[in-house]
C-alpha cells in the first residue's frame, strides 16, 4: 500500500480550524476534520504516549490515519480511558500504515480521554498524522 499524501487546499485556516484537507486521490475530507501530526518515541512496552488530547468535555473521533514505525513492531492506538477503542497493526520498519477513510469514524466512548500510542518493543519511534474531529 502506498503512502497517503495530504495537503491543505486552503492556507487561510489557522490552528484548530478546518484545514480543507485533500488527499492525493483528490478526495476532500469533511469540513470539521483536522490533522493531528505527531512524532513520538515509546520508551517501553506498556508505556503509552499521548498523540491527541481533546479539549475538556470532548471526545476524539478518528476518521483516518497514517503512521510509520521506525522499527519493525506492533503499533497500538487506543483510548486511555478504555480498551474498548483499540486498533492494532503489525508493520515492518519504515513501512507506512495507511487507513485513509474510516467513513463515520471511530469514536471514543468517554469524554476527556486521550488517544495514545503504544508498541510491544521498547524505544520505537513512531511518526504520523491522525485525522478526525472532537465531539461533545
| Net shape | globular
The sequence of SSEs as H and E is: EEEEEEEEEEE
Structural class: mainly beta
Major sheet attributes? 5 strands, antiparallel
Fraction of helical residues: under 10%
Q: What Rg is obtained from the alpha carbons, in whole angstroms? A: 15 Å
Total of DSSP H or I helical runs spanning 4+ residues: 0
Q: Give the terminus-to-terminus CA distance.
A: 34 Å
Stretches where pLDDT falls below 50 for ≥5 residues? 1-18
Strand tally is 11
Q: Tell me what portion of residues adopts beta-strand conformation.
A: over 45%
Mean pLDDT: 81
Oligomer: single chain
Question: Would you write up a description of this structure?
Answer:
With 136 residues, the chain is mainly β. The chain has no helices and 11 strands. The chain has strands at 6-8, 21-23, 34-42, 49-52, 59-69, 73-79, 86-91, 97-99, 106-107, 115-119, 124-135. The strands form 3 sheets. Strands 3, 5, 8, 9 and 11 form a 5-stranded antiparallel sheet that branches. The protein has a 4-stranded antiparallel sheet with strand order 4-10-6-7, with no helix packed on it. β6 and β7 (86-91) form a beta hairpin. The chain is globular, with a radius of gyration of 15 Å. The termini are far apart. Residues 1-18 have low confidence and may be disordered.
What secondary-structure arrangement, pairings included, does this model have?
Layout: E1 6-8, E2 21-23, E3 34-42, E4 49-52, E5 59-69, E6 73-79, E7 86-91, E8 97-99, E9 106-107, E10 115-119, E11 124-135
Antiparallel strand pairs: 1-2, 3-11, 4-10, 5-8, 5-9, 5-11, 6-7, 6-10
Amino acid at each position: 500500500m502506498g503512502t497517503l499524501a495530504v495537503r491543505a487546499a486552503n492556507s487561510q485556516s489557522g490552528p484548530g480550524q478546518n484545514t480543507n484537507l485533500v488527499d492525493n486521490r483528490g478526495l476532500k475530507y469533511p469540513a470539521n476534520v483536522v490533522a493531528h501530526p505527531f512524532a513520538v518515541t515509546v520508551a517501553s512496552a506498556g508505556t503509552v504516549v499521548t498523540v491527541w488530547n481533546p479539549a475538556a468535555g470532548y471526545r476524539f473521533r478518528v476518521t483516518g490515519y497514517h503512521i510509520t514505525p521506525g522499527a519493525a513492531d506492533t503499533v497500538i492506538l487506543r483510548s486511555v480511558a478504555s480498551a474498548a477503542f483499540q486498533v492494532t497493526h503489525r508493520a515492518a520498519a519504515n513501512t507506512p500504515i495507511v487507513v485513509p477513510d474510516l467513513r463515520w469514524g471511530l469514536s471514543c466512548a468517554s469524554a476527556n480521554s486521550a488517544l495514545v500510542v503504544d508498541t510491544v518493543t521498547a524505544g520505537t519511534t513512531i511518526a504520523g498524522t491522525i485525522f478526525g474531529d472532537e465531539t461533545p
